[in-house]
Amino acid sequence: MIDLRSDTVTRPSAAMLAAMMAAETGDDVYGDDPTVNALEATAARLSGKEAALFLPSGTQANLVALLCHCQRGEEYIVGQLAHNYKYEAGGAAVLGSIQPQPVTAAADGSLPLDVVAQFIKPDDMHFAITKLLSLENTWNGSVLPLRYLEEAYAFTRERGLALHIDGARIFNAAVALGVGLEEIARYCDTLTICLSKGLGAPVGSLLCGSTEYIKRARRWRKMTGGAMRQAGILAAAGLYALEHNVVRLKDDHDNAAWLAERLREAGVEVSRQDTNMVFVRVPPEQVEPLAAWMRERDIRLSAGPVTRLVTHLDISRDALETLVAAWQAFLRR
Ligand SMILES: *Cc1c(COP(=O)(O)O)cnc(C)c1O
Which DSSP category does 26 fall into? Predict the structure, then answer.
């Protein structure tokens, strides 16, 4: 089966499973799990932050991040289509009484700072208190420019806000820019990272920030049910992923570029930004037939008027050849 729905569908490799089997464990709620501690120390080092925290999912990492930044009656400014506004079931509002202030993102996923400025509330009892700017990098596969991040960081310093990056796919951004994670993370206060996407781990996310911040995050993680016991088995997969699966993200990007080019040649309207996602425009009446056609050929994709194809470590160039051939056959049918 060829599964291009998301880079979350990867299965742990034999070598990753072996690392998990060999993991030394302890009770992480007591702080005793050496493998979790090693993963958190590695994440802190790579991001250039003082500390990091291992959590079960990216959604929980973002929730805990928001709970740390904002109290009840405070707000965060966030993209209208951002994951931690639109795709996390309203967790910050429901569980934290935190008000989101969504704004429309530019085409590259940046939140224009003049627009953000208009939404920062003055100190007035009518308004929620604006505390945080939350950005997403990568955004639909595109990388936020470092220059923008630098400006956004300086802007938040001037305006007394914190800056959080939802970096579920931040390593894709780092690899696409050819920089270390630290070069991006220096422009934020806190950062979340998913190990379970392009990095190929089965489970797990990280939240990085200052020592004091991560201490508070640890309590919110406990409260939201994310503190785990012999979690070193999962952390071992994360450590393996950080060691072996970062540099190879370039293969996914190259594969996505190759796929976009081939589909374009086949006469399909395609856009691809900087990393591992290709978006294909499909006429509405062809969406269902395309999905059925691919299903019959054991190819899975999120079919829609804009069909998203995501490359990842379980998708080889051969698999993409098969996909392109299937697509061409669909157009000729
Ligand atoms: C996937 C994703 C998340 C959430 O991660 P889960 O581990 O699926 O909860 C958060 N933000 C972005 C941008 C994502 O793509």
Answer: -
What does the pLDDT look like over 95-109, one tens digit per residue?
Answer: 999 999 999 999 999
* CATH architecture label of 7-244: 3-Layer(aba) Sandwich (3.40)
Atom 5 of ligand 1, residue of closest alpha carbon: 58
Per domain, the residue ranges of the chain are: 7-244, 248-332
User: Which residue reads 């914190």 in tokens?
Assistant: 162
| Closest listed residue to residue 263, CA positions, set 274, 277, 249 | 277
What is the rounded distance in angstroms from the CA atom of residue 11 to the CA atom of residue 32?
28
Ligand 1 shell residues, CB under 6 Å: 57-59, 62, 83, 136, 166, 168, 194, 196, 205
pLDDT 10s digits, 69-83: 999 999 999 999 999
Average pLDDT over residues 39-48: 98
Ligand 1 centre from 87 Cα, in Å? 8
Taking alpha carbons only, the member of 270, 230, 307 closest to residue 32 is 230
CA 86 to chain centroid: 14
Which atom number of ligand 1 is nearest to the Cα of residue 196?
7
What is the rounded end-to-end Cα distance, in angstroms, of the chain? 22
- Return the CATH class of domain 248-332: alpha beta
